[in-house]
Design goal:
The protein has 222 residues and is mainly alpha-helical. It has 14 helices and no strands. α4 runs parallel beside α6 and α10 packs parallel to α12. The chain starts with 5 loop residues before the first helix and ends with a helix.
């Protein structure tokens, strides 16, 4: 396979035009991780936030031994909450079990709801049962988006023990919470899930009903 010219991409990443730098990052998707990461690092602290965000995302999908410590440092020390959220998301893409502790800390301690949301989503991506306790606690959050992320993450982890808590959201006024519940229950093969999904299949909100029907089908085929 012919990869993009690395020297040209390196020069493009130093262009004064941010669009050039973004296009170079896009081109690096075709480059093996070991060659791509040194170039991605050139714009990790770019003055243009979209460039930084794309670089951080790129570290999540081009994993090398360097990526994990860089992303943890960004998550724990960067002053921009958007960058911390990006780092949390990229850690989820890495699917590295070591990310559990920094993501849990972010979920507990970060002052930004966006970072906490991103951390919860990534804990689901890790599919590590050790995250279940903190995600169940997040169900009690006053932030609906965090509840949504926690429901989805518990489904991704496949924590059947959490079903009794998740079912509390079957009658929620927020249809997105009910939809996330319907989606999550499709990964939790117990009788209570099936009963709840049959109930949600009759939901007046079409996306909720469709999600429930899809999850029921998935459970019947598993």
């Amino acid at each position: 396979m012919n990869y993009p010219n690395l020297e040209e991409l390196a020069n493009q990443l130093e262009s004064k035009n941010s669009r050039d730098r973004l296009l170079a990052l896009v081109a690096l998707r075709e480059v093996p991780a070991e060659q791509a990461v040194p170039l991605i690092k050139k714009v990790l602290y770019d003055e243009i936030l979209p460039v930084r965000s794309m670089a951080i995302f790129a570290l999540g999908v081009k994993p090398t031994s360097e990526c994990f410590p860089i992303l943890v440092q960004l998550l724990e020390t960067d002053s921009d909450y958007g960058i911390r959220a990006d780092a949390a998301g990229a850690l989820g893409y890495l699917e590295d079990a070591r990310a559990l502790e920094p993501l849990v800390r972010a979920l507990y301690e970060d002052t930004s709801w966006l970072v906490r949301f991103s951390a919860a989503v990534s804990l689901g991506n890790l599919k590590d049962s050790r995250a279940s306790e903190v995600l169940i606690q997040a169900l009690d959050s006053t932030e609906v988006v965090l509840q949504q992320a926690a429901i989805a993450a518990l489904g991704e982890i496949g924590d059947v023990e959490s079903v009794y808590r998740l079912l509390e959201f079957a009658g929620s006024e927020d249809w997105l919470l009910r939809q996330r519940l319907a989606e999550a229950l499709g990964n939790l093969p117990v009788s209570k899930s099936i009963s709840a999904l049959k109930y949600l299949q009759k939901d007046s909100n079409i996306p909720v009903a469709q999600a429930a029907a899809f999850s029921l089908q998935r459970l019947s085929e598993s």
